[in-house]
Amino acid sequence: MCANKLQEAYETLYDEDKRRVYDAKYCFRQQGFGNTPEQTQSHQRSNEELTEKLRVEKRDREWSAQAQSRVSNIMRLRQDLSALEATCREMQVKQRERQAQEDSSKGLFGYLSSFWSANPGKTEEERRREELEEVQKQTSTSIRLQRAKILLRATEHDHQNMLREQDQIKNEESLRWLRAKVQKEQEAMKRRASEQKEAARAREAAFEKAQSEARRREQTEERRRREQLDSERRERDLRQELLDKLAEQNPKGTQPGPSQYRSPNPTTPRTTNNRASARNRRPKEPQTQMPCRHLKFWPKVAGRHECSICAKTFHGFVLQCPDCGILACAGCRRGVRGG
Fold first, then answer.
1. DSSP for 141-171?
2. What is the 3-state secondary structure (H, E, C) of 63-112?
């Protein structure tokens, strides 16, 4: 079994046609590693086409060799026929010569020459035997000639039939090849059309995505702009409300002291109610002051305090105006100061 396989392998290696068929049959194992299914199918189709091409070439060579052998056989039969025809013509010439000799011997001159000649004439039996042999030879030659003609006609007819059949097979194969080519072109056109449709669909999807992103960005910018406008409007309203509140608290233009807005600070030490100190304390005269503009730096006041403007409680710290002592958060401080 192993020896048969080795012999087959050596025959495949030494025979060019077998080696080409083997390479065409098994090359997809080398080319198809790591390829996509489409590429593998294309490799298989190319391998099948190459195998079919090699088969057609081998068949054409066999047909050419058969046609050459048939032509050589026809030429040999024609030579044999020519030789038989020449033999028949020679036999006919000899028969005419013998017939003329017999006719001349039957006359007076032949009768007299038979006495003068040194060789005596042939007997009747010998002449009949020779005539019978000549007739048999002519008959066999004519039969062989007819058989050669029939064989030549049959061989030529077979040759013409084989050529017609081969031409018909070649025409059918060419027609099938043309149909396969047209079908392949149609499939390629369909594939290109589908690829173009996919590309157009992808471009449309990308365009729609870009438009949606642009609309989303526009909506985001519009929302941010509206939020900014709303925040600016709220700050203006808060500033105006604070100014109105300050105007209502100080109708005569007097500025309240810091103790009016200052919340109790746990870090500030409590003052004892000392009557002596209260007795020694002198009342201050009310001073008319201009409304505070809150332009100085506001220091931080740590602890839990309530904003005097938005009334929210903050546990970390608040800011205090050094002039009027009002407590406010950072947002309200910006609204009061105007930025």
1. HHHHHHHHHHHHHHHHHHHHHHHHHHHHHHH
2. HHHHHHHHHHHHHHHHHHHHHHHHHHHHHHHHHHHHHHHHHHHCCHHHHH
Q: Which residues of the chain have pLDDT under 70?
A: 1-2, 24-43, 105-122, 250-291, 338-339
Task: Report the sign of the C-alpha dihedral through residues 329, 331, 332, 337, in that order.
Answer: positive
**pLDDT digits over 193-239, tens only?**
999 999 999 999 999 999 999 999 999 999 999 998 888 888 888 88
Please check whether residue 85 is in contact with residue 145, taking contact to mean a CB–CB distance below 8 angstroms.
yes
Closest of 253, 248, 235 to residue 333, by C-alpha: 235
Tens of pLDDT, residue by residue over 270-293, are 444 444 444 444 444 444 445 677
Residue 305's DSSP bridge partners are 314
pTM above 0.70, yes or no: no
Whole-number Å distance between alpha carbons of 192 and 182: 15
Residue 327, classed as helix, strand or coil, is strand
CATH for 293-339 (3.30.390, 1.10.150, 1.10.287, 3.30.60): 3.30.60
Q: Which residue has the tokens 């449709």?
A: 197
Structural domain spans, the chain: 32-106+127-213, 293-339
Distances 254 to 171, 216, 284, 289, 328 between C-alpha atoms, Å = 119, 53, 14, 5, 20
> d(Cα 54, Cα 17) in Å, to the nearest integer?
8
